[in-house]
Amino acid sequence: MNGNLVLPGMWRRIKLPPLRHTLTLFGAAIVSLAVFVAIFAPLLAPHNPFTQNLGNRLIPPLWMGGQLSHLLGTDQLGRDYFSRLIFGTRISIIIGVSTVIASGLIGITLGLLGGFYGGRIDDAVMFLITCRLSIPIILVALTVVAMVGSSLTIVILTLGLLLWDRFAVVARTATMQVRNLDYVAAAEAAGASRVHVLLREILPNIANHLIVVATLEMALAIMLEASLSFLGLGVPPPLPSWGLMIAEAKDYMFFSPWVIMIPGIALFVLVLGINLLGDGLRDLLGADRAQ
Amino acid sequence: MWLFFLRRLLLAILACMTVMVISFTLTRLSGNLAASIAGPNASAADIAIITKNYGLDRPLPVQFLDWARHAAEGDLGRSYLYHVPVWSLIRQRLPITLTLGLIAILMALAVSIPLGILAAAREGTIIDRAIMLIALIGQAMPNFWLGLVLIIFLALDLQWFPISGVDTWHGYILPAIVLAFSAVPALMRLTRSGMIEALAADYIRTARAKGLSRSKVILKHALRNAAMPVVAITAVQLGYMLGGSVVIEAVFALPGVGYLAWDSITKNDFPVVQAIVLFLALLYIALTLLADLVNALLDPRLRR
Fold it and tell me: Which helix (H) or strand (E) holds A30?
């Protein structure tokens, strides 16, 4: 880039292209591991994550003087923390994937229509995006869950209805960019239907941008679920959502800080992994400019 | 210019009306509002009384129009729980949330603009990569968890700050840091990309060619052009912060608007919830409208 024109000198010499790919691979490894753990949770967990044992409350993790049978210790109800963490991965992954599917369907449909047709339809799409952006996400999600009742499905549907805006914005911009290219005109000249043009010609050509958005939204959905559960209006107990684990352990954090550290670090690492992967994909798929 | 202004204003007013419908609908999602207010142990007679007293037996469109007409006149209704006007509850707590939001946005700008400039000036180097990695880490940090961790280490162990409340100004620092953390990545990325674009422009080459110093070129010529999108996103981020401070206020037990909202949601105080959702949405709409106008004034190219 010409940016280096201004600042010559030693910094230009030190270029580290491999670092970026190392981080991308690192992110991919974290995400794969999380998906693997989520799928095989029942086989990997040493204990039942719901079984309470009041005689074994708040056992510290192994490295802090705990027991081999409870690697990460136990919580305030004597449930094995390692097993709860493993099943919590499952909840986070389910929330992340389902929310992205729901919000992607809404956002991509709107973005494709607005970007392709333009005019009044595009005005309507832009208006919907403006309205969606002005609604405070956490507050509205909390209200919906409080009104309708808390369950995994409700949280997924609520987040799906709230997180489609970035899909719509990116799909719309990207569609506008490819809309007037020759292959679209060729398909139309060949007599292809509108549906065919949108789904078979345009969608595959803007998919690289959408995949990057999907990673961002997945990370956001996982984070929001944790926040909602932390406030007591997300996934209901006794499900081992990481946010809920932090909320339940909050009263004990002054004497046993690890009870909030363990689920918090898990959440941090998973979200960081997804973001690193998304950042790497952005470079690899050349999805940089339309953002 | 006037056409742009009018179009933008019309869009904002339409958005306000839609948001009113949404915030009204939200609190009716449970199906039976009176039963939710009365609580699980209420008798059918209690529920009937509440239904009648709060006018919940009227058709929904009538209830909506009634609420909307009063809201337009500034009357947001009365709290079911405190039996005082909702607006007085919000007004009482607003200074805390606004103070928190302003401190946080200033902190975020103070961190993200210099780092963004530095990353852009050294684009592609290890410094740039390190700064972008910091942005990613900031993005991945769960803010409620960061709040708890800071409470354990800085408030409990080191006793630098109070654990909760805002009796003194000290109480604002930890929550503001946590809130600022969430805005830094976006602001930093935008400063960086804006600066990279600006530094590649011809007028920078000219400025350098006429012998201006490196720092002067970056700070005076490039930054001015890179600042615009940052102004716009700052308004948006401030809007997000005010909405997102629900979580932070709950963690630090700050008696602000967010805490009031959370409390009202858990206690079924619907007029308050409805009003706060509307209030925050209107605030966001106003902030983005303002940012758009400022940008249009700064950059004639945007006035389409």
Answer: helix A17-39
Distance CA B207, CA B82 (A): 63
Distance, in Å, from the CA atom of A161 to the CA atom of A106, rounded to the nearest integer, reads 8
Report how many Cβ contacts below 8 Å link chain A to chain B. 178
With a cut of 60, say whether residue A5 has pLDDT above it.
no
Please say whether the beta carbons of A197 and A187 come within 8 A: yes
Please, are residues B242 and B287 in contact by the beta-carbon 8 Å criterion? Answer: no
For chain A, positions 101-160, list CB contacts with chain B under 8 A. 127, 130-131, 133-140, 142-144, 146-148
Contact B19 A276 (CB under 8 A): no
B228 Cβ contact partners less than 8 Å away, ≥ 6 residues apart: B194, B295, B298, B299
Distance between CA A165 and CA A119 in Å, rounded?
A: 19
CA-nearest of B227, B190, B112, B219 to A6 is B219
Q: What angle do CA B287, B293, B296 make, to 5 degrees?
A: 140
| Closest alpha carbon to A285 in A219, A217, A222, A213 | A213
Over the stretch A145-186, which tens digit does the pLDDT of each residue have?
988 888 999 999 999 999 999 999 999 999 998 888 888 889
| A18 at B interface, C-beta within 8 A | no
B109's CB contacts (< 8 A; 6+ apart) are B187, B234
Output the pTM of the full model.
0.88
Single out the residue of B17, B53, B58 nearest to residue B37, CA to CA. B53
Radius of gyration (Cα) for chain A, nearest Å? 23
Residue holding tokens 């996982």? A222
User: Over the Cα atoms of chain B, what is R_g?
Assistant: 24
State the complex-level ipTM: 0.86
Find the CB nearest B148 among A142, A250, A272.
A250
Write the CA distances from B231 to A288, A290, B6, integer angstroms: 22, 20, 21
Cα–Cα distances in angstroms (integers) from residue B101 to residues A157, B168, B183, in the given order:
30, 17, 11
Residues of B in contact with A261 (CB under 8 A): 149
304 residues of chain B, pLDDT tens digit each? 677 778 888 888 888 888 888 888 888 776 677 777 777 777 777 788 877 777 777 888 888 888 888 888 778 888 888 888 889 899 999 999 999 999 999 999 999 999 998 998 888 888 888 898 888 888 899 999 999 999 888 877 777 777 766 667 777 888 999 999 888 988 898 888 888 888 888 888 888 788 777 777 777 777 777 777 787 788 888 888 888 888 999 888 888 999 999 999 888 888 898 889 888 888 888 888 888 887 777 766 666 5
Verify cis geometry, omega within 30 degrees of 0, for the bond prior to A238: yes
Q: In a 3-state reduction of DSSP, which class is residue A50?
A: coil
Residue of A231, A253, A272 lying closest to B148 (CB–CB): A253
Q: Are A208 and A60 in contact (CB under 8 A)?
A: no
